[in-house]
Amino acid sequence: MSMITIRPIKATDLDDIVNIAITAFPFDEQWVYRYPYKKQFPEDHLKFTHLYYAEYLNTTFAGQNTIMVAEAPDLDDPTRLKVIAMSIWDNPGNAPPNPDLPAVAPPSNHPERRDCNPARLIAYSASTMGTRKALFVGKFGQRQLSLRQMATLPDYWRRGAASTLLEWGMERARREGVAVPMFAGNMGKKLYEKFGFKELGIAHVQVEGEEEELFMSAMAWDPKEDELL
Ligand SMILES: CC(C)(COP(=O)(O)OP(=O)(O)OC[C@H]1O[C@@H](n2cnc3c(N)ncnc32)[C@H](O)[C@@H]1OP(=O)(O)O)[C@@H](O)C(=O)NCCC(=O)NCCS
To answer: Which atom of ligand 1 is nearest to the CA of 159?
Structure first.
């Protein structure tokens, strides 16, 4: 809604985006799949999620990613603006796998964290990397503004925060002549379909010997194709 504004992330937003991730992503299948022990080890979950986003801020300020946040009046104190949603994008030219990535390490997996299933982290990376290469790089080359993450605080769902952030990315993609690829879970898929994203394929993740498996929809929106409609 009109009360929502967006802006690039600042270093002081770190705690807010960690809180958004920790409260919103458990509704996304991939998070539950990768961090099945988050309830047993809440201190690890917080510590390593914090570290993960701190690393993301480094690569962002190094020019590799863009993080846009959405703000809205705080429900508990409407005189105050609160960061209620975040979106993380790989700047065009930095979409992995790219052998020319800048000399800043992308966020690491931290397999020592006790809240995760390390084998699943590896399988997840391998599957998404393979799918990125086969479907996204195969179709768009480096002509892509990859959407890595999107999340809104549950108390602020269905107020248009994710839509506003997505529209920002689609506008940028249109201006720069690039596509917007991403992986969607069941919740995200509804949002992206509404904006005309198309499914290019399915990423499947499964650790050998485990019954649990994860499916994600590999989706993309291309302004070039949109114009033809
Ligand atoms: C998916 C998510 C980011 C949407 O955030 P949001 O700020 O509530 O999104 P918006 O208010 O802009 O919703 C836009 C549209 O998406 C669809 N949508 C969003 N949430 C939905 C839900 N729970 N059920 C059905 N459709 C939904 C609707 O079409 C909605 O438009 P409408 O409200 O006019 O019907 C949020 O639910 C979330 O953080 N989920 C957990 C994390 C996650 O799954 N992230 C996406 C990973 S791919």
So the answer is: 11
Burial of 98: CB neighbours in 10 Å, binned 0-12, 13-18, 19+? middle
- Quick one: CA dihedral 53, 59, 64, 68, positive or negative? positive
Q: Which residues are CB-neighbours of 99 under 8 A, at least 6 positions away?
A: none
Range of the domain at 184: 5-228
Name 18's Cβ contacts closer than 8 Å, sequence gap at least 6: 46, 49, 50, 53
Backbone phi, psi, residue 135, to 5°: -95, -50
> Which pLDDT tens digit goes with each residue over 178-213?
999 999 999 999 999 999 999 999 999 999 999 999
The domain total for the chain is: 1
Q: What is the pLDDT of residues 57-111, one digit of tens each?
A: 998 998 999 999 999 999 999 999 999 999 999 999 876 555 455 445 556 777 7
Ligand 1 proximal residues by C-beta, below 6 Å: 24-25, 27-28, 85, 150-152, 157-163, 184-185, 187-188, 190-191, 194
Q: Which of 6, 191, 192 to mutate to test the pocket of ligand 1 (most atoms within 8 A of CB)?
A: 191
Report the CATH number at residue 43: 3.40.630.30
Contacts of 160 (CB under 8 A, 6+ apart): 1, 4
Q: Which residues contact 174 (CB under 8 A, 6 or more apart)?
A: 223
